[in-house]
Amino acid sequence: MEKQKIKMAVYWGAACGGCCVSVLDVHETLFDIVAAADLVFWPIALDTKYEDVEAMPDGHIDLTLFNGAIRNSENEHMAKVLRAKSRVLVAYGSCAHMGGIPGLANFSTKEEIYCRVYDESESTLNPDKSRPLVACEAGEGVLELPEFYNDVRSLADVTEVDYYIPGCPPQTERLVEVFTAIVTGAELPPHGSVIGAGNKAQCDECIRKKNAHKKITKFNRPWEVTDDGETCFMEQGILCMGPTTRTGCDYRCIEGNAPCRGCYGPTPDVSDPGGKMMSAIASIIDEKESGPIDEVLDGLVDPAGYFYRYSLPVSFLRRAVPRNR
User: Which among 9, 158, 20, 33 is positioned nearest to 85, based on CA atoms?
Assistant: First the structure.
């Protein structure tokens, strides 16, 4: 008897679409996925309506890859619906895992964002200071928009998550591994595990040359220096998130002569990536040769945005303290 296909869904919340593209990046392996799974919901590829998903029995979907952060009420609603309808719910990619790039909005409040977008942007004329409405009466009926939340949150902040696959986007090989494990009934890691990633820091696997006693006297933006293609980025004064970021991506950014951005998230022993990076930086500044340490640190452009590029909503900070306008 032919083996029954699993039912699979892919959904995006607050995301750029790169995670959905990564699903297609399996190339010829796509035929194996199609042979083993029926896609029952994927907004960018199928015309399945929310009502169709809501009408499904609980547990009807075997595997859902949820990518994107929770930015508004629509994202939260579908996260909870898909949790109920899915046997296995995976936070797929940095945004679902940790809040991702959209999570940087937590350095501002909702009102600050609205002021910039609807009042202050160079191309906006809005003398009445109008704002989006959740509901508006029109001749055709009530027009509705999702509620825009003050905070960006990770998927786990609003519903239970079975597994996390990190990355911006995740490496295609990791997706295939996880998919194959679910299809074949292989034993999966404990509930709540980060899968498709290692437990070591990027620095442990990075093939660039490292000095055991690295010391720097200033920080540089990548475009300010000529990378020699061999030496540790940090030793060249270029910020790299390697000390705090877990392996699993095959350090592809570094192989492409770009410093690690931190999209795979912190290693299990790191409570907060920003704190870990500050510690790493403090340990390599040669204050005797560099002069005043304040001047050295002035070379760090937007350290909070860099250290928490993908993880602000799940960090110790979670968001910036609101300030009076």
Answer: 9
Tens place of pLDDT per residue across the chain (325 aa): 456 888 999 999 999 999 998 888 877 776 777 778 899 999 988 999 999 999 999 999 999 999 999 999 999 999 999 999 999 999 999 999 999 999 999 999 999 999 999 999 999 999 999 999 999 998 889 999 999 999 999 999 999 999 999 999 998 887 888 778 777 777 788 899 998 888 999 999 898 998 877 788 888 888 888 999 999 999 998 999 999 999 988 888 998 899 999 999 999 999 899 999 988 888 888 777 767 777 788 888 899 999 999 999 999 989 887 666 5
Q: CA-to-CA distance for 320 and 294, rounded, in angstroms? A: 23
pTM of the full structure: 0.91
d(CA 102, CA 94): 10
- DSSP, collapsed to helix, strand or coil, labels residue 2 as coil
Residues 6+ apart with CB under 8 A from 217: 237, 285, 286, 289, 290, 291, 296
CB 89 within 8 A of CB 66: yes
First to last CA, the chain: 68
Nearest to 315, CA basis, from 201, 148, 154: 154
DSSP secondary structure string for all residues of 265-302: -B-TT-S-HHHHHHHHHHHHB-HHHH--HHHHHTT-SS
Q: Which fold has domain 6-101+150-194?
A: Rossmann fold (3.40.50)
Backbone angles phi, psi at 142, to 5 degrees: -90, 120
Tell me which residue of 115, 117, 192, 188 sits closest to 161, measured CA to CA.
192
Domain ranges across the chain: 6-101+150-194, 109-149, 202-314
Maximum CA extent, the chain? 75
